[in-house]
């Protein structure tokens, strides 16, 4: 079970996941206009088998999605993986994103 902590500050939203034992290349973060998804799939081999037919493979996987807040620009999201903790930072813009848009008639 992956432990997750989601927090908000005046500057940003932050998602922290405790994911020890993974390589950075195992972690996948996908973002679209409304959703951020974090997943991984890791293969582990048991090399202690006496005979090749006894070789054990196990797969661990995880996938979780969150709806992005309306005021987050998906292109500004940043992620770091350090000592088994994945930290995803979703900066809040300096100015409020307007909820409505006026369309000019041409």
Keywords:
106 residues, mainly beta, four-stranded antiparallel β-sheet, three-stranded antiparallel β-sheet, elongated
In words, what does this structure look like?
The structure is a single chain. The chain has no helices and 7 strands. It is an all-beta fold and 106 residues long. It has strands spanning 3-8, 12-18, 27-31, 35-46, 56-67, 78-82, 85-91. Strand 3 (27-31) and strand 4 (35-46) form a beta hairpin. The model has no long low-confidence stretch (mean pLDDT 82). 0% of the residues lie in helices and 51% in strands. The chain has a 4-stranded antiparallel β-sheet, with no helix packed on it. A 3-stranded antiparallel β-sheet has the order 3-4-5, with no helix packed on it.
Q: Segments where pLDDT lies below 50 for 5+ residues?
A: none
Structural class: mainly beta
**In order across it, which strands form the biggest sheet?**
1-2-7-6
Shape: elongated
Number of helices: 0
Mean pLDDT, rounded to whole units?
A: 82
Number of strands: 7
Characterize the main sheet. Answer: 4 strands, antiparallel
Proportion of residues in helical segments: under 10%
Radius of gyration: 19 Å
């Amino acid at each position: 079970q992956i432990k997750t902590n989601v927090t908000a500050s005046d500057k940003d939203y932050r998602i922290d996941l405790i994911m020890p034992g993974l390589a950075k290349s195992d972690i996948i973060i996908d973002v679209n206009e409304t959703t951020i998804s974090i997943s991984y799939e890791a293969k582990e081999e048991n090399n202690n088998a006496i005979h090749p037919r006894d070789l054990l493979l196990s797969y661990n996987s995880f996938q979780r999605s969150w709806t992005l807040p309306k005021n987050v620009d998906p292109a500004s999201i940043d992620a770091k993986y350090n000592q088994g903790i994945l930290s995803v930072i979703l900066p809040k813009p300096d100015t409020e994103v307007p909820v409505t848009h006026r369309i000019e008639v041409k």
